[in-house]
Amino acid sequence: ITFNVPVAMVASLVVAYSVTPWLARRLLPTGGFHGWRAQAVLQRGYRGLIGPLLKRRGLRRVLHLVLVLGFGLSLLQPAWQFLRPQGVGGPVSALGVPLAFLPKDNTNSFLIHLHLPETTPLEVTDRAARELGELLRRQPSVRDYQTHVGLPAVIDFNGQLKGSGRNIGPQYAEIRVNLIDKQLRGQSSIELVGALRPEVEQIAARYPGGIIQLVEDPPGPPVRATVLAEVNGPEPLELAHLARRLAEQFRHTYDMAEVWASVPYDLTEYRIGVDRERAALAGVDPTAVTRAATRLLAGEVLGEAHPPGERLSVPIRLQVPRSARIDPALLARAFVHPAAGAPVPLSEVTRVTHTSAPKPINHKNGERVEYVGGELAGSAPVYAVLDLDRRLDDLAVDENQTLATTNLGLQPVRPDALRGYQLLWEGELRLTLDAFRDMGLALGLALAGVLLLLVGYYRSFVLPLIAMGAVPLALIGVFPGHWLLGTTFSAASMVGVIALAGVVVRNSVLLIDFAEDYRRRGHPLDDAVREAGAVRLQPILLTTLAILLGTAVMVPDPVMGGIAVALIFGSVSSAVLTVFAIPLLYRAYALRGLA
Fold first, then answer.
1. Which residue, among 6, 52, 128, 24, has the nearest Cα to 526 in the 3D structure?
2. Contacts of 406 (CB under 8 A, 6+ apart)
3. Which terminus of the chain is more exposed, N or C, with fewer CB under 10 A?
4. Using one digit for the tens of pLDDT, what is the confidence trace for 103-131?
């Protein structure tokens, strides 16, 4: 965008001042009028509307008040969610415009991720995956699906960031779902996933402690979770307990689905050791006890079979069935033979201790961290995060410490466990803050550059500010346009606003230049202002129509449609309002200069 647009504008400028006049001279007949037939009607209508505004101060004040109210109400649409009495949580207000990094895209595939408790056998995980498969079979938009039980599906860019490669074990399963091409189906992938969630939650309820996630391909950079909290603290056990408490708070948040925490389940580990004193009393060699226990739990290869016609031998392995190996009481039914005497049960010469299985330790930026994440069915992450932040800030961790929430500013914050327990907000909201920070800086630099150019052109500081008045007039239409089409104001919309700032200022320059030239010819100020709007109305409307038709094809695109919506509605509102507001502001400036 930043390369193609300037190059195209420079090329257009060269063509407009060289090729277009030459073609007009060669192709258009001379001696006739080749203007727009409705131009005279537009000019008469414009003169009839601006005439009373030039004569009556009260009407001008009403117009200024309407423009200020329109600008304020337009900005209130995205801001009302943060100011309303009922709080930021909950559905978007009736006239509100949601804010997000990028809206979801209509893709041709998505992923279903299963994470059941660590003690789940592979057969149970497979049964859950088959139930999901039966659900997918009934969906007309599903073309096919592939199930991976015990190991991850083919890892894509999204899976690399989520760490799908580590999801290996009997408690994991993933289903890659391929849909009919989006050009051939009436239901978007977003709508399909939303419709599947209630039924998937019913299946997940039959597997207590399990999490089933519907993972959609992100339109922008992938994140570990849409709403993601990174919790840091000095004590591992307290940190894990805090992460579980935060997960409960996540579940009580509006529109939150598929909440998970990086804290693994508590598993009991049985450690079998040889009781050397009892083994000596029973006359059993401790090595024989170790060998017998290993044979019981892990099995033993007794020999090799050589089936006819096979190039490689097949190992013959003696192993206790899985269903009989779980209970440590099995040791009482297995025996070891001493050098002399009757067989001795393994339970007599071993001791079994119960302990907690070791858990993985997560680190980020050199600090111990636990993650708590969740997905949203349809709302923007900023509202869920701010609602959670209000409830979690200063949450009591123990008698002496509280939880501090941070990382909601324009600059990211690094964790520091020495300051106690911290919650850093990451996920899609961090991307949104970074994007709007950079885009806001780019918009400010663009406006400053335009202002400096106009200051050098007009040799004045007031006229450039009048010309820049077209920018807030354009914003009057940007947010109502997003609301009218049900479009989220995203980073793409911000790109459209930046482009819009350069486009709409041109309309102001056309009006001011014409009025300045008309006054230099000796015409009265009111006539110069009136004729500036009347004569320049046609090219302003034609330019706006070109923008509308050129960008309308982008409106249906779920990701880049924000650019088109901002350009179309911003340019239309600016064109309609600029031809009245800018001439009146110029007239007030000129009258003060004459005075």
1. 52
2. 413, 422, 423, 424, 425
3. C
4. 787 888 999 999 998 888 889 999 999 99
